Amino acid sequence: MKTHDVRVYRSEEHLPREDQLAWKLAEVAAEQLDPAPEVTDMVINRVIDNAAVAVASLGRAPVLAARDQAEQAGATRGRGATVFGSAALVSPEWAAWANGVAVRELDYHDTFLAADYSHPADNIPAILAVAQHTGRDGGALLRGIVTGYELQVDLVRSICLHKHKIDHVAHLGPSAAGGIGTLLGLEAETIYQAIGQALHTTTATRQSRKGEISTWKAHAPAFAGKMAVEAVDRAMRGQTSPSPIYEGEDGVIAWLLDGPEARYQVPLPERGEQRRAILDTYTKEHSAEYQAQALIDLARRLGNARPELRDPANIERIVLHTSHHTHYVIGSGANDPQKYDPDASRETLDHSIPYIFAVALQDGAWHHVASYAPERAARPDTVELWRKITTQEDAEWTRRYHSTDPAEKAFGGRVEIDLVDGTRVVDEIAVADAHPLGARPFAREQYIAKFRMLADGVLADPEIERFLDAAQRLPELTASELLELNVMGDVPSAGTKGIF
């Protein structure tokens, strides 16, 4: 990996195109490399994982609305791309939109956390849609997905967006555009223009993840994917983008991020170097914000070992000592009263670690539907326990969260439970059980089991087996077989209509 120094340039300072970050990202994307076997295996895992969580959300309102939009507005004169749960072939930007919402709806797919947040599998719907529409094969799709992961992870390692209340999809637009560029074998010049446009159109505030969180949380990455498809299309037609998009005097860094004096160190693969960033990412066993994963496992363990902890009458207070990110994003440090509101939206509850810890402690389990049901959130003993739970930032957990050493990087925390009888229970967990360093790391077997579990009752058994067979043959799929990376089940209609 080579580290690139990125800073703001005044208008009178000439920054050659080849020295701009967008160009360096484009150069990575323009190179065609065959992935290492372990990288290929992980791409297959994540394609299965995306489909699993999409299947589980097929009947949910945001997914129904996005699918209906795609079917109504996405008529295509060309080959078209598939949409989860639909027999229709639609234009690729609309397939990216509908499938992006389905993948993101339950907050249940992969994650990478460093200087910023990300869900790198959000790259897959847009890249897959363009692959299907343009008749590319599985090998091209594989290379495109590897690039999408590489660019997003490298940006997330080095450039913090959330500190300035910019939503993390601002790293997704450029990475998806780069991945599509690799898929299509485009030259660096075209990819450079697409990355600039994708970034320019996908910067938005983090209010979508603050307070009463709305259904837009699922749409935000889908919108970034849709914008990436459209940006590549425009760039292929010779259209250009704002430049330098990152480093310009009125650019993203100067006005949206760390300002005119900012400097970032961005690592990117050198020419000929394997793209391995996907191996540093991790998926979710539970449908909740990633920073809740380890704490769900800790709560389950404590509740099962000490049932008396489930009764709020026995509890004086529960304090979760954890990282800065966890405390301020999903903890009491966010100062969002909605995080303690039993009438809050599902999207809000999956960003409330006090709620999540209370339910996992009482139930000894976590379920993507039952754990968020209104009647579950409103249970009086749960509300009483929930409101006794707070978070505190702990400097050591923050340090470990940001560590670049995989052996000590952690996303958990320490819980201190004070009981009314004066005793105290203290326990901690560093990483989720499903993490590569956790108690039960996810491998192909677990990804398939997750798909089967979420598809049960939604897809017919032959459809489950058909999809799993196609996904596991991804590198060898022909252009026509790429259309098999879709699932068909019995899903309701949207029920509501808009303009389309």
Automatic annotation (TrEMBL):
Keywords: Lyase. It is an enzyme of class 4 (lyase). It catalyses: (2S,3S)-2-methylcitrate = 2-methyl-cis-aconitate + H2O. Its EC number is 4.2.1.79. The keyword Coiled coil does not apply. GO terms for molecular function: 2-methylcitrate dehydratase activity. Residues 20-264 form the MmgE/PrpD N-terminal domain. InterPro entries: MmgE/PrpD_sf (IPR036148), MmgE/PrpD_sf_1 (IPR042183), MmgE/PrpD_sf_2 (IPR042188), MmgE_PrpD (IPR005656), MmgE_PrpD_C (IPR045337), MmgE_PrpD_N (IPR045336). Residues 286-472 form the MmgE/PrpD C-terminal domain. The keyword Transcription regulation does not apply. Belongs to the PrpD family. Monomer. This is 2-methylcitrate dehydratase. It comes from Ruicaihuangia caeni.
